[in-house]
């Protein structure tokens, strides 16, 4: 569900006009935001808190006090001075000042920027002290590689339309309080919102259920819980057809995506000419099978197929036939999608148990239609009668009769080759374990994004250094995070 700013404001007004105090909600929001920051930065470091005049600044001051309490070095900046902030925010400023300085003896060099300048009630161009402090945040983010956490909404972003005003804050993480705002769904908002984190508060609000963001709260119920007596036959026979000369890595990454997320039996079918290369590089648990005819592929008796990664510019026509005819669910990706786009048959002729995973370039070859990410994904999924996973920084998933769902995890280091190959294997694995094509696409998108975050953090690497292989090796911890409900 996403909400407009008016829907959110009205819900808060109804609650607080009934006699409920707003201060406990500010304290809870600040506490959960501080916990989110410490989830990604678990050791004390340096934080700069930026506060506007309203209660958004009060939330930020709660964050600052709690980080200070836990040993962080914390500085505070006001857009209009501490004397001009709201009454409740002033109490939070007093509490911040009264908090003893318990700075840790050793601090991480990380710089955290907390944007509490403006909340959802603001709109229009940034001016005066707000603009100065927004510029300060953006400058520190660029020049010192600071990481910006926006409280509820990045300053300068319209919460209803997603329009970004000049000088608006670019957040690396947006800590979305109670419900995500409808403006976050706009294509233009993606670079400003960044990684979206749910900060739930018990404030009843109604919104648009046709679109929703993927959070652990709505993904964890879709995960199957394995019984103790589960055996490999119960966990899905996943058969993949991938790779070609010069593109053997795509096959290996696809197989790793399936194997590392719990597929019971993972069989990778490759053309005979690359068999030895792939077989010697694949993990031991992956069965590599050379083939010359499609009938040899089907000897694996698959519960789910994954077809396409690294097949090259001219996949065998029998593989296209397989995509249209085999009764088992199938994940179709990359070169097979390009081949179908050139084929006389239409995507609307595919069985409904197909999951298509194109990136924007592939989707442009598959359809002449255009539009924003949500509307295009919605329209094509309905027209073709399949599940469509439109990959990108905010991957969009749609199936007939289901809401459009938008991924929240990941980082800019995923802009490198092979990530989509891993995703194909992950989705096939999840389908083999009983998830629908739609739910597999949703869970799979979240998992690879979270795995990329773990790959970045576990070795203290720059995002740019994360590869598809290192990401694939972090799928286990990512799945465990989702099972535990972690961010």
Descriptive account of the structure:
There is one protein chain. This protein has 487 residues and is of the alpha/beta class. It has two domains: 208 residues, YjeF N-terminal domain (Rossmann fold), CATH 3.40.50; 264 residues, Ribokinase (UDP-N-acetylmuramoyl-L-alanine:D-glutamate ligase), CATH 3.40.1190.20. It has 18 helices and 18 strands. The protein has a ten-stranded mixed sheet, with helices on both faces. Strands 3-2-4-5-6-8 form a six-stranded parallel sheet, sandwiched between helices. The longest helix has 22 residues. It is elongated and about 75 Å long. The model has no long low-confidence stretch (mean pLDDT 97).
Shape: elongated
Main beta sheet strand tally, sense and closure: 10 strands, mixed
CATH fold descriptor of the largest domain: UDP-N-acetylmuramoyl-L-alanine:D-glutamate ligase
Number of domains: 2
Strand content: 15-25%
What is the residue-averaged pLDDT?
97
Roughly how many Å apart are the termini? Answer: 17 Å
Radius of gyration: 24 Å
CATH architecture of the largest domain: 3-Layer(aba) Sandwich
List keywords for this structure.
Rossmann fold, 487 residues, alpha/beta, single chain, ten-stranded mixed beta sheet, six-stranded parallel beta sheet, elongated, UDP-N-acetylmuramoyl-L-alanine:D-glutamate ligase
């Amino acid at each position: 569900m996403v909400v407009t700013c008016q829907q959110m404001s009205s819900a808060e007004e109804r609650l607080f006009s009934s006699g409920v105090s707003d201060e406990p909600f500010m304290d809870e929001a600040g506490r959960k935001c501080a916990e989110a920051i410490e989830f990604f930065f678990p050791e004390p470091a340096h934080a700069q808190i930026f506060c506007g005049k309203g209660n958004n600044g009060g939330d930020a001051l709660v964050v600052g006090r709690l980080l200070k309490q836990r040993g962080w070095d914390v500085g505070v900046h006001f857009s209009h001075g501490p004397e001009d902030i709201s009454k409740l925010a002033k109490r939070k400023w007093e509490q911040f000042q009264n908090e003893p300085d318990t700075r840790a003896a050793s601090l991480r060099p990380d710089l955290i920027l907390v944007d509490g300048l403006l909340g959802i009630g603001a709109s229009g161009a940034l001016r005066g002290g707000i603009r100065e402090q927004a510029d300060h945040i953006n400058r520190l983010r660029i020049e010192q590689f600071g990481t910006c956490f926006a409280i509820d909404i990045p300053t300068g972003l319209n919460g209803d339309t997603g329009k970004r005003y000049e000088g608006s804050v670019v957040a690396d993480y947006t800590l979305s309080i109670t419900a995500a705002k409808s403006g976050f769904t706009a294509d233009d908002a993606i670079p400003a919102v960044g990684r979206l984190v749910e900060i739930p508060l018990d404030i009843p609000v109604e919104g648009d259920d046709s679109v929703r963001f993927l959070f652990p709260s709505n993904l964890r119920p879709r995960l199957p819980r394995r019984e103790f007596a589960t055996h490999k036959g119960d966990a899905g026979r996943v058969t993949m057809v991938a790779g070609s000369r010069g593109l053997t890595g795509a096959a290996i990454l696809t197989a790793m995506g399936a194997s590392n997320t719990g597929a019971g039996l993972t069989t990778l079918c490759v053309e005979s000419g690359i068999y030895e290369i792939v077989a010697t590089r694949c993990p031991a648990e992956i069965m590599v099978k050379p083939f010359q005819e499609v009938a040899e592929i089907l000897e694996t008796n698959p519960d789910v197929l994954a077809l396409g990664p690294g097949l090259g510019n001219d996949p065998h026509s029998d593989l296209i036939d397989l995509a249209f005819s085999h009764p088992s669910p199938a994940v179709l990706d990359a070169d097979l999608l390009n081949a179908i786009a050139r084929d006389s048959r239409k995507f609307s002729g595919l069985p409904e148990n197909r999951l298509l995973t194109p990136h924007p370039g592939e989707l442009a070859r598959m359809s002449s239609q255009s539009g924003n990410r949500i509307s295009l994904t919605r329209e094509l999924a309905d027209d073709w009668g399949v599940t469509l996973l439109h990959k990108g920084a905010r991957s969009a998933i749609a199936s007939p009769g289901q809401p459009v769902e938008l991924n929240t995890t990941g980082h800019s280091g995923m802009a490198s080759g092979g990530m989509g190959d891993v995703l194909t294997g992950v989705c096939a694995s999840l389908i083999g374990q009983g998830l629908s094509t739609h739910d597999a696409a949703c869970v799979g998108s979240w998992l690879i994004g979270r795995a990329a975050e773990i790959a970045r953090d576990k070795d203290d690497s720059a995002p740019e250094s994360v590869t598809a292989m290192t990401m694939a090796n972090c799928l286990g911890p990512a799945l465990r995070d989702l099972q535990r409900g972690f961010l």
